[in-house]
Design brief:
With about 200 residues, the chain is α+β, with helices and mostly antiparallel strands. The chain has eight helices and four strands.
């Protein structure tokens, strides 16, 4: 797993930032970060995320009064304010998919993502909005303790059998193993009790 850490507000970051924006990404996500960024940089943050998006930006930031470590009071705002800022960059708000995303976050992240997440789309993205979660996500709802509420993320009856749901879970596990082999190996060793617990384990590369 590779991670690029860039201070996009630093004077010397323009070249790297330009490369990221020019490359573009189908899916751009920022979860619960903006509340740690001084408000004076919020316009530049939204501009960067919008310019890097080719299809879907998914965003959340702490709302006023939300508890957390390192939150800046002046940097917390309602999701409607962030929606307005993305719309000013030409992106389109997707109320149905936003509801699906918020519903999928409950109850594990009911304190933040459930109340804060918005899904936008690039104007060139012709996909329609929807209140229906993906078939595989709804199938997982029947197997895992996920809950969807009236925020727009309610799953309809999928009609999938237990065997079909097991196959979907197996496909997900195989995909994760292909994407993150070292992390998958560490997870498996931890589940089997073989992972070292003395701090000698190396993080996934």
């Amino acid at each position: 797993m590779h991670r690029l850490s860039v201070d996009i507000f630093a004077p010397g970051a323009e070249g790297c930032l330009r490369g990221l924006v020019d490359e573009g990404f189908d899916l751009v996500m920022s979860f619960e970060v903006a509340e740690h960024v001084p408000a004076q940089f919020h316009d530049r943050l939204v501009q960067m995320l919008a310019k890097a998006t080719r299809r879907w930006p998914v965003f959340s930031a702490a709302r006023p009064g939300q508890l957390g470590t390192g939150h800046l009071n002046e940097s917390m705002g309602p999701r409607q304010e962030w929606q307005r800022m993305f719309e000013e960059q030409g992106l389109v708000y997707m109320p149905g998919l936003s509801g699906v995303a918020r519903g999928a976050a409950y109850h594990y992240r009911g304190y933040d993502l459930f109340g804060n997440t918005i899904v936008m789309k690039h104007p060139s993205n012709l996909e329609p909005d929807t209140q229906q979660a993906a078939h595989s996500l709804c199938a997982m709802q029947q197997e895992l303790p996920l809950r969807f509420f009236d925020s727009g993320g309610t799953c309809k009856e999928t009609g999938t059998s237990l065997e079909e749901r097991k196959n979907m879970t197996g496909e997900r596990d195989r995909l994760e193993a292909q994407l993150w082999p070292s992390l998958t190996a560490l997870t498996q060793s931890a589940r089997s009790g073989a992972a070292p617990c003395n701090g000698s384990a190396q993080p996934a590369a």
